[in-house]
Every structure is written in C-alpha cells, then in structure tokens.
Known about the structure:
By secondary structure, the chain is α/β, with parallel strands linked by helices. Helices cover 29% and strands 15% of the residues. The protein is built from 6 helices and 7 strands; from the N terminus they run E-E-H-H-H-E-H-E-E-H-E-E-H. The protein has helices spanning 31-34, 41-51, 56-66, 121-146, 186-195, 247-260, and strands at residues 7-10, 18-22, 72-76, 149-157, 175-178, 202-204, 224-232. A 7-stranded mixed beta sheet has the order 1-3-2-4-7-5-6. Helix 5 (186-195) links the parallel strand 5 and strand 6. Helix 3 (56-66) crosses helix 6 (247-260).
Amino acid sequence: MDIPDSVELLPGAADSPVVLHVPHSARTIPEPVRADLLLDDRALDRELDAITDAHTAQLAAEAAGLSAKRPWQFVNRLSRLVVDPERFPDEREEMLAVGMGAVYTATTDREPLREPDFDPNPLLDSYFHPYARAMTEVVADRLAAVGQAVIIDVHSYPTEPLPYELHGEGLRPPICLGADAFHTPPELLTRAAGAFVDFGGVGANSPFAGTYVPLDFYGTDARVSALMVEIRRDLYMSEPGGPPGPGINRLATALASLISGIP
C-alpha cells in the first residue's frame, strides 16, 4: 500500500475488518502551510485548541490494545488546518458555507484563516488526494482479506457549540453516534449505543451527523460499514486544550467493547 508520510497506518489482525480512523487528533502544520495562515502564533494555538480532537489517537491506540482482535488504525498526523480529509473536495460539502471545505479559509470563529484568493489545489494535490487514496487502499485490503470493512471514525467535540457549527443548536449528548443511511447497519448503531451506555447519554446525528467512507465505496458498496463516534470533550479532558483525564481509559474500554463485538 502507498501510505503518505502524513499518515500513520498501524496494522491490526489479519482477519480484522475494523479500521479505526482518526483524522483530527494532530496539531502539526508543515512550515510552508503555516506561512499561508493569517493567524499569529497565539491565535493559532487558540484555534488548534478549538478545532483539534485532542487525544483521540491515544484513545484509539488504547482501545486497539484492549480489543479481542486488534483493529487497524489509520491516523492523520497533520492538523485538519492543512486539509480536512473528511470533507467532500467539491460543492457537495455543506461546510463550504462557513469556509470549512476540504481546505479551510475561515476559523471556528468565522474569521479569515487564509487570503480570499487562496488556491486550495496545491494542498489538495499534496495532502488530500494522497490521504484519500491511502484510505481507499486500506479499505480495499480489508475487503479482499475478510470480505467486509468496518470504519469506526473517532472524534471529539466541545461541550459548548462553536460559531462555525451549522447545527450547533442540536442536542450535545456525551456520546454522539454519526450514522449513514446506506453504510451504517442498525445492528452496528445498536451495538455502539450499548457499548457507551454508561457515559450519561447516547444520541445519534446531533450535533454532528454522518460518517466517513472513501468516495470509491460511498453509496455503492454495502460491504463497507461505517460509524462515527463523537465524544464530548468534558468526558475525558479539560477544555479547550488540556491534558487527558482518567475518563479516557473508560472510553477506551468502551470502544474496545464495541470493536470486540464486531464479527
């Protein structure tokens, strides 16, 4: 498989269909990309605190170690301020309305992040498309090996809504499960709700909806299942950008329970 330097692929068991996808955990921004951001260092740190799904790579790694059958881990090692690999790269992306398509032009406060005439294509070519190809290869590899792939998208979100959120008025349960009508089987959603039942409440598709599937399979290949797990940050860390607390261990155990229950 052709895995770009921006991604860490941690192999799982040969017969595991599960891919833990961690797209938003990192804060690293290559210097040439940093040069095009309009924020000073202090403002950039605040923005990274707000937009980064802090410690979700650690959470996924702990869950993988606790799982009966080790899942594969596909971890983005660059900040989503470089590119957001989960966005549509075209006009299908609703977050374009607030300057947060595949390449962000605005901050979480809806302030300018890049110049209005910024050309996103070099970033898409350097980072977005190689990432998408690599994730496609990993999913195709799981299909070839075991006949199915189950993507579990690991995210977190702030307790209070941020100005960029298009659906910030929705419920903000401790655990939000993002589901897709085609790619999320009801039994996967039910299994996830059971795994996280002890965290004070589980909701679906609010405040964030849907889940990630590589476009080569999206809406066409039912062998690819997917679920987004959005964890409210007050469960495991001090907000906005503090260290993880003991809650991360409980969450890892719950995520491992979900993974272990997938046939």
